[in-house]
Amino acid sequence: MVKEGFPFVGFALFIAIVFAFFQIWIGVAIFVFITLFMAYFFRNPHRNIPTEPNIIVSPADGRVTRVEENENGKFISIFLSPLDVHVNRSPIAGKITKVDYIHGKKMPATSNNASLVNERNSLLIEGEKLKVTVTQIAGIVARRIVCWNKAGDFLERGQLFGLIKFSSRTDLQMPANVDVLVKIDDKVKGGETIIARIND
């Protein structure tokens, strides 16, 4: 579990103990359930990061909701439900050259407009062969975007760099010289699912 989950788990467990002291068992049951859910939500499972060259891995767990071509190249959007793992991972090995946080709205993360109007945090990562932009986007029930790294830091492929608390989405902008390997409605795992390959 990532450290950001400790306050949520601790608070829910404390309330459960208070209810137990007063023998209010329905309250105990509810807050034990909340404690377990919080521990589950903030989980950080081990991932087997692929090592083959010229690949791009998913920056998040969830369901692919958009696969598009635009003026900047290839674009993929991943929706994270409250049941998905919410940590974010670097899709390539490279240096973070820019971090851009925008304090926007909290529209539903399933909306395509969320990429343009919601609270979001973008990382431009420059690898050996390409640059990608990963954007963490808060959803309607998200409370905070967390990013542990800053411009100048180097990330390995699949390395953790942050998380989004509760329902959210993660966008990935790639250059045109990649072949996208996923389609809409595919389920992906952060750091593990190969979602694109560099086309030399």
Could you characterize the architecture of this molecule?
With 200 residues, this protein is of the alpha+beta class. The protein folds into two domains: 39 residues; 144 residues, Glucose Permease (Domain IIA), CATH 2.70.70. Helices cover 18% and strands 37% of the residues. The strands form three sheets. Strands 9-5-6-7-11-3-2-13 form an eight-stranded antiparallel sheet. Strands 1-14-12 form a three-stranded antiparallel sheet, with no helix packed on it. A three-stranded antiparallel sheet has the order 4-10-8, with no helix packed on it. The longest helix is centred in the N-terminal third of the chain and has 17 residues. The N and C termini lie far apart (38 Å).
Secondary-structure element string: HHEEEEEHEEEEEEEEE
Q: How many structurally independent domains?
A: 2
As an assembly, this protein is: single chain
What's the CATH architecture of the largest domain? Distorted Sandwich
Number of E strands: 14
Query: Structural class per helix/strand content?
Result: alpha+beta
